[in-house]
Amino acid sequence: MLRVRLGDVTAFEALVRRHLDPVRRFLFRWLGERETAEDLAQEVFLRAFRARARYRPTAKFTTWLFTIAVNLARTQARRRQRHPVRPARGGDVPPEQPTTRDGPATLLGRQERAEQIRAAVAALPPGMRTPLVLSFYQGLRYREIADILGCTENAVKLRLLRARQALQERLAGWVTPSRDGEMDHGI
């Protein structure tokens, strides 16, 4: 990003190639809409490019980038609350890859389970959903999430704990906790 700040467009193209998919996946998990996630991912990089002169390497580039993505996702969520639109069902959930051993009932069960998990994550309040998506789906560490959200690591841990508890309650019929209290699918 320091090279981009100096006007190196090729360096920016490399950053986009490297980070577009993780940003897009984060936005999809946060918003639950593939098309909106695609649009906002492009907006994230557009804003990053426009802000290149103000970029300061006080944190990791990904922390700065995901801060932009989180802010855009929150703005989109507020916009949705003011102007609700019913999304089409089915098109937003990526299909499972069948194996030769999977029958139609198994595939249907997996798709239903994935839809239930997606809906449960989407129903979480933003304060719980954001750290959950950043931690579980993006693999960020507590410190990175804390930097993105502008809070402490302990606050991130507490939000993640509450998010997992809320998901366990919502998914009680679909997912069972393991012995250590984690749900069997890793959330």
Report on this model:
There is one protein chain. By secondary structure, the chain is mainly alpha-helical. The protein folds into two domains: 2-82, Rna Polymerase Sigma Factor, Chain: A (Orthogonal Bundle); 109-170, Orthogonal Bundle (Arc Repressor Mutant, subunit A), CATH 1.10.10. The chain has eight helices and no strands. It has helices at residues 2-5, 9-31, 34-50, 61-82, 104-123, 126-137, 142-149, 153-170. α7 crosses α8 (153-170). The longest helix is centred in the first third of the chain and has 23 residues, at 9-31. It is globular. Residues 87-97 and 177-187 have low confidence and may be disordered.
Short description:
The chain has 187 residues and is an all-alpha fold.
